[in-house]
Amino acid sequence: MSQPRVAFFDTKPYDEECFDRVAAGRLDVNYFRFALKADLAGVVKDTFAVCAFVHDRLDRACLQSLHDQGVRMVALRCAGFNAIDLEASRDLGITVTRVPAYSPSAVAEHAVAMLLTLVRSTHRAYNRIRDHNFSLAGLVGVDLAGKTVGVIGCGKIGQKAAQIFRGFEMRVLGHDPNANTKWAAAHGIELTDIETIWRESDIISLHLPLFPETEYLVRAETIARMKRGVIVINTSRGKLVKTDDLIAGIRTGQIGGVCLDVYEEEDEYFYRDHSGLILDDATLALLLTFPNVLVTSHQAFLTREALLQIATTTVENILAAAEGRALLPGTALVEAGP
Length: 338
Ligand code: NAI
Fold this sequence. Notes:
The protein has helices at 13-23, 60-68, 86-92, 104-120, 122-130, 156-167, 181-187, 194-200, 220-223, 243-252, 282-287, 304-322; strands at 5-8, 28-31, 49-52, 73-76, 95-97, 148-152, 171-175, 190-191, 203-206, 230-234, 255-260, 293-295, 332-334. With 338 residues, the protein is of the alpha/beta class. The strands form 2 sheets. It has a 7-stranded parallel beta sheet with strand order 8-7-6-9-10-11-12, sandwiched between helices. A 6-stranded mixed beta sheet has the order 2-1-3-4-5-13. It is globular and about 65 Å long. The structure holds 1,4-dihydronicotinamide adenine dinucleotide (NAI).
């Protein structure tokens, strides 16, 4: 039997390396390093499935064009699905899958890594010592042991983060409308209301999804209720935080430190090499000037284990759809049938 042909869009070398390993001898893969949009859909020929990522734009026109060329499946290699018009997929009979969970530890560990870097100035020490500057001036940090951390969103990632924080002998407050009380009791996590999180936390880590009701959860009004000098960590979604208000808080000292793996206007910059170019985003440029702000480029998911999980789920689903078998549980967004 011939192997199903799959067109991958917006790939990076690390994606290709991982998919090559998992798909070898099973799928006929074709990598395109640019993001997919309607007027580029014509590059796909005799292809069963398209594998897309967060910056591909699978609107109705794009899906129609893919369908006209015989594409019967879109396999998203991410959890979020705002990049695809699901109604159009349903109308066209295109099966859509995603990878709902890959490695919660990857994201939780990155959040903690950012916090440790920030509070011990490891990034600054590294640069200093490479320049043979062995002075410790300005590098005084704080202990995490004994501090209170508020974890907002105690789902898969929040739980991992909370457990790691407990390992540092921190007091961990958790807030989640669907909190798992058994888990909290087993790990010594104090479940509480949002006001207690704002009032008592030395560090606040966001692990909740972006919904209309959670947009700008961290804004002037909530920042004012936080402890002076609080550290805010966001590895979830940029729009959970109103960046201008965050900057205002940093300037007054109300916010003592910030770790951001996501940023509300990240689509323009993150995942791309802009070195040598003008940074035409005054807010991001300003954020990068603060010594107590650490920014990474939405890389919290980027571990070998997570990439392997993403590739395995995606490849298994494409093979299942091509062979008329059941998709992996919890991965189907649109099941178009044979
Ligand atoms: P999850 O669905 O397992 O957990 C999310 C939790 O947030 C749920 O328990 C839910 O009840 C809770 N929640 C919803 N609304 C809330 C509110 N208003 N206040 C407090 N809690 C609330 O999701 P998971 O896998 O833990 O992911 C969390 C977030 O991490 C995702 O939504 C995504 O935005 C982000 N993420 C970031 C990645 C990165 O590379 N930076 C990679 C993967 C996910």
